[in-house]
Amino acid sequence: MISSLHGRLLITILIVISLMWGAWFAGQVLQTRRYQEVMWDEASRYTATQMLLSLPRDVDLASQPPGFRVPEGVEPWTRELRLAFQIWLKKDGRLLMGSPLIGRTPLKADFRDGPAVVRIDGEQWRVFALSDAENLIQVQIGKPQSELDATARSWMQFALLIAAILFLLLAVAIWFVICLSLRSVERVQASIQARQPLDLDPLPNTDLPREIRPLVDSFNQLLVQLSTALEGERRFIADAAHELRTPLAALTTYAELALNAPDGRSEREALQRLMLAVKRSARLSEQLLDLARIDARPDAGGSQSVGLHELVLVVARDFEVMASKKHQSLSLQVEPCTIAGYVDELGILIRNLIDNAVRYAGQGGRVEITCRNVPATAGGAEQVHFKVADDGPGVPVEERERIFDRFYRVAGSSDRGSGIGLSLVSRAAQLHGAAIDISEGIAGRGFAVTVSFPSQALQSE
Amino acid sequence: MEPTARILLVEDDVMLADAVRTGLKEQAWRVDWLADAASARLALIDHSYSAVLLDLGLPRGNGLELLKFVRSRYDTTPVLILTARDKLSERISGLDAGADDYIVKPFQLDELAARLRAVLRRCQGRVSPVLRHRDVMVDPAKRLVTRAGEAVALSAHEYRTLLTLMESRGRALSRSQLEDAVYGGDGTIESNTIAVYIHQLRRKLGEDFINTVHGYGYRVGEALE
């Protein structure tokens, strides 16, 4: 397969043209041959008639054999133009006259009038016979078939020569036209090649043929997406650098305090603080990793059938120790719910919601996790609701809109969060086409987040 | 608890492995440590361990393959997998491949020890031969459940619920007993998940396969005299 567009176009066009021309040529050859045969038959009839009419009445008395000779140096017949005639007396089948070329055998042995093709000495002859009105004599005229073919052949050779010349001219013309039309593609290619790495400005799309323009347009669209992704990456690195520095500074400080502690009690105290700071930075790095993972994820493809209730259970168990340390009650009400989704990203969503609830519910607080199917309502499809509610201090109504923004922290919250958790939840929900609702938590206090996933109709599981 | 229990730790991070070994030795466990899947595979063929602590991301073959290999030999040694927090899919496939429990990195040593004890406790006295009730057959060695000869697909938790009920056939088990056997947690989470698994099991094995003992729990088979 030729990969160049030029070559492919040229070859295809030339092949099509030569096929069509070949068909036309074959038709012409057949037609010409037929035409020549008819013409020859007509000419023979005319010649035979003229001969018949010019014969004397007493032709049967003419002396035998011919009494005249041609002068020296004149050939009696030529190889190229072999034409033979015979005049037969019909009643006793005697040859009255005949060209020496053919001898004494009748051209047409059956003596029937009209045209025919006969075989003489292993050669095809086209002959014509004509009798007079009284059926006394018959004139026979013949010509070898190869003579007729030779005429046709010379015509064919001429036609082929002309075709070859036209073909070459056509090829050159087509090549020029193709080059001319592909120049705009080459221009686009050159402008891509001349780019700096990470130059994400759109390509110029003016002066482009209608066929190329969509290509350039979608490429530009891709560039826009890429630049958004790159922008996100840059922002992430900047954010992460800032967020990681603070806890690391705290770690160093506490470690130094522990090392320089004057007595065992203050050393232990410093170590405990160090432990807290370690946990905080561990959580932060996990969230930053989640952020990077979920940001880098393409929006579609590869989703699978997931039993949300199973995931909720598995993730909720991670919080057992933390909740029991804070004397919290964690309750889980689930029913089998199947959605189409991505396990790891759903894990991020579930974990961050439960983590927030356990974090903010405080000592002896309550956290309720529910996961249930909600039947289709008017104008809405069947859904799966995943809800996490706590009885902590909650979030002021005016701030509820903003808590899903990245690095937004509710003012004055004691257990200082990273401001990443809910933005992860929001991104994961968006990935699953799920909606997020915020409401009051348990018993008129606290805070509840409900994520509504589109349900996946299920037969077997 | 067995003071002489011998644990195989398969973990490629030297720092973490060292910390875990030190911590577990202090609690009187004996710990063998291997850093890659291939040598762990050999060790599991040659020795018998009380439990395996298995990291899933390993050099020279991954942990999940190793787990599948262990279970394919009908080896019922309890396996506790160590996974990263963001790899929920890994955890789920680990459970489905026959892991007994998992612990999420970074973990605390006392939590690890508690989980390990729970796993060992659950496995003690577990009978390996095939369990049958009506047309349902459970083969713990192969981790296979069939109903009338047809294999039934169960999630890891559904399977453990069924196995626990079958092992104490004829005796009623309370919800918390079941919960303890299925997850081995400390019971802080109050949930209806056992009811969900019972519901799923009834759907797959027949509505009357598991009896409800009102106000208490569930039972497979008729009550023993």
From TrEMBL, chain A:
This is histidine kinase. InterPro entries: HAMP_dom, HATPase_C_sf, HATPase_dom, His_kinase_dom, HisK_dim/P_dom, HisK_dim/P_sf, Sig_transdc_His_kin-like_C, TCS_sensor_his_kinase. SMART domains: HATPase_c, HisKA. The chain crosses the membrane at residues 6-26, 158-178. Residues 239-457 form the Histidine kinase domain. It is a multi-pass membrane protein. Residues 182-231 form the HAMP domain. The keyword Amino-acid biosynthesis does not apply. Its main location: membrane. Its EC number is 2.7.13.3. Coiled coil: none annotated. Keywords: ATP-binding, Kinase, Membrane, Nucleotide-binding, Phosphoprotein, Transferase, Transmembrane, Transmembrane helix, Two-component regulatory system. The keyword Transmembrane helix applies. It catalyses: ATP + protein L-histidine = ADP + protein N-phospho-L-histidine.
UniProtKB/TrEMBL annotation, chain B:
Its main location: cytoplasm. Residues 128-222 bind DNA. SUPFAM superfamilies: C-terminal effector domain of the bipartite response regulators, CheY-like. Keywords: Cytoplasm, DNA-binding, Phosphoprotein, Transcription, Transcription regulation, Two-component regulatory system. Residues 6-120 form the Response regulatory domain. This is Response regulator transcription factor. Residues 128-222 form the OmpR/PhoB-type domain. InterPro entries: CheY-like_superfamily, OmpR/PhoB-type_DNA-bd, Sig_transdc_resp-reg_C-effctor, Sig_transdc_resp-reg_receiver, WalR-like, WH-like_DNA-bd_sf. The keyword Glycosyltransferase does not apply.
